Amino acid sequence: MARLHLVRHGETTSNVMRRLDTALPGAGLTDFGGRQGVRFALEHPPQDRVVLVSSVARRAQQTAELIGSVWGTDPDVADGIHEVQVGELEDRSDDDAHGVFKDIVERWHRGEIEARIPGGESLAMVYERYLPVIDDLTARHLAGPDQRDVYVVSHGAAIRLIAARLAGVDPTFAASTHLQNTGSIELEYADGLWVLHRWGAVTGPFGPTVDEPLVTEPMG
C-alpha cells in the first residue's frame, strides 16, 4: 500500500536562533539544513514513482528541491500546507513568546481547536486550509488504482497537529514527541481510515506518555 510521508523541512537560521518564523516566504535553509535534505533523500530512496510536494515557504521548497534532485523527481508546490501562523509572536525568540505559543498548542492538543494565537491562527483555521490538500492528494494518489507514495515537505507544528488529527493519535504522545528537522511521519490510508506507522524515530506504541498534553517543542 502507498503511504503518506509528512516531512519537516531542513534546518534554518530561525531554528538555530529559536525565532518564531512563520510568515511567508520565511527563512531559507542553512548549509547544514541543505545537507539534511540531501541525507533524507539518500536514506529514503523510493522504490517506485513518488509524488513530492512542498509548502510555499522557502525552506520547504528548498528541502523538496534537494530531495527531488537526488530522486530525479520534480517537486510541486501546494498552497495551504505552510506552518501555523503565529501572528503577534512573529520574529520573536524570547521565552514569553514561546510560552504563549506553547500554551496555545497544548490547548489545541486538548481539543480546544478554536483557541487562537494573538493575531494568528486557531487550529480550526489550520485544519480548514491544510486538510483539503491532504484529501486531494489522497484521492489522486493513495486511494485510486494508480497508487504511489506521497511526500509532503511541510512544517513541524503543523505536521504533528495534522498527523494527530488524521490517525487519532493520543494527544499526549503528539504533544510531547518532537519531530526534528527532516524528521517525518509515515501514515497509510486504507478503507477510509488512516493508520500511523512511524512518528520520527518512533514505530510504536503511540500511546500516552504523560497524564496531560505537554508540548516540549511546539515548532517541531
Q: What does the secondary structure layout of this molecule look like, with pairings?
A:
Layout: E1 3-8, H1 13-17, H2 31-43, E2 50-54, H3 58-71, E3 76-77, H4 95-109, H5 123-142, E4 149-154, H6 156-167, H7 171-176, E5 184-190, E6 193-199
Description:
The protein is of the alpha/beta class. It is built from seven helices and six strands, in the order βααβαβααβααββ. The protein is globular, with a radius of gyration of 16 Å. A six-stranded mixed β-sheet has the order 3-2-4-1-5-6, sandwiched between helices. 39% of the residues lie in helices and 15% in strands. β2, α3 and β3 (76-77) form a beta-alpha-beta unit. The two termini are 28 Å apart. The chain has one domain (3-199): Rossmann fold, CATH 3.40.50.
Please describe the structure with a list of short key phrases separated by commas or semicolons.
220 residues, alpha/beta, Rossmann fold, 7 helices, 6 strands, 39% helix
